[in-house]
Amino acid sequence: MSIRLKELVESLGGQLIGDADTRVSGIAPLSDASASQITFLSNPKFRPQAAQTQAAAIILSAADDAAIGADYRGARIVAANPYAYFALAAQFFAAKNAIPVAPGIHPAASVDPAAQVAATAYVGANAVVGAGATIGEHVNLGAGCVIGRGVSIGAGSLLHPNVTVYDACQIGQRTIIHSGVVIGADGFGFANDGGTWVKIPQTGRVLIGDDVEIGANTTIDRGALADTVIEEGVKLDNQIQIAHNCHIGAHTAIAACAGIAGSARIGKFCSIGGAAMIHGHITIVDHVHVSAGTLALRSISEPGQYTGFYPIAKHGEWEKSAALVRNLNTMREKIRALEKSIKQLIEQLPQQVTQKDNE
Amino acid sequence: MSIRLKELVESLGGQLIGDADTRVSGIAPLSDASASQITFLSNPKFRPQAAQTQAAAIILSAADDAAIGADYRGARIVAANPYAYFALAAQFFAAKNAIPVAPGIHPAASVDPAAQVAATAYVGANAVVGAGATIGEHVNLGAGCVIGRGVSIGAGSLLHPNVTVYDACQIGQRTIIHSGVVIGADGFGFANDGGTWVKIPQTGRVLIGDDVEIGANTTIDRGALADTVIEEGVKLDNQIQIAHNCHIGAHTAIAACAGIAGSARIGKFCSIGGAAMIHGHITIVDHVHVSAGTLALRSISEPGQYTGFYPIAKHGEWEKSAALVRNLNTMREKIRALEKSIKQLIEQLPQQVTQKDNE
Amino acid sequence: MSIRLKELVESLGGQLIGDADTRVSGIAPLSDASASQITFLSNPKFRPQAAQTQAAAIILSAADDAAIGADYRGARIVAANPYAYFALAAQFFAAKNAIPVAPGIHPAASVDPAAQVAATAYVGANAVVGAGATIGEHVNLGAGCVIGRGVSIGAGSLLHPNVTVYDACQIGQRTIIHSGVVIGADGFGFANDGGTWVKIPQTGRVLIGDDVEIGANTTIDRGALADTVIEEGVKLDNQIQIAHNCHIGAHTAIAACAGIAGSARIGKFCSIGGAAMIHGHITIVDHVHVSAGTLALRSISEPGQYTGFYPIAKHGEWEKSAALVRNLNTMREKIRALEKSIKQLIEQLPQQVTQKDNE
Question: C335: which of B7, B310, C127, C225 lies 20 to 30 Å off by Cα?
Answer without folding.
Answer: B310
